[in-house]
Write a structure and sequence with these properties.
Strand order of the largest sheet: 1-2-3-4-5
Structural class: alpha+beta
Radius of gyration: 21 Å
Strand content: 15-25%
Distance between the termini: 65 Å
Largest sheet: 5 strands, antiparallel
């Protein structure tokens, strides 16, 4: 019984240390640099998972727009879309609060 308790205590300490390391490590998807995309409408896209802000730079006039409270799934779907411009118009443009920068 004493051995089992020692093993359990050891595992608990290891799990606690691992949890602290993970909490201290920055999230991998927290922020991305702007990525150039192939599109006649969109020049580049950036996404910050912590703030849930999607930044889109348009081809025309290099206008930059920030879309608030965008789920990461929407960002991923945009980046995987065959037509990023069509996906953007249908799923983002009029759906999320926008600020022109």
């Amino acid at each position: 019984m004493k051995i089992i308790l020692t093993v359990i205590a050891s595992v608990m300490i290891s799990l606690s240390a691992l949890a602290q390391e993970e909490a201290a490590a920055p999230a991998e998807t927290a922020s991305t640099e702007a990525v150039a995309v192939e599109s006649s409408l969109i020049k580049s896209v950036a996404y910050n998972a912590e703030t849930r802000v999607l930044t889109v730079v348009m081809v025309k006039n290099d206008e930059t727009y920030e879309y608030s409270d965008v789920p990461e799934l929407i960002y991923k779907e945009l980046m995987e879309a065959e037509s990023k411009g069509s996906y953007f118009i249908k799923n983002i443009k009029s759906t999320y609060k926008t600020v022109k920068k």
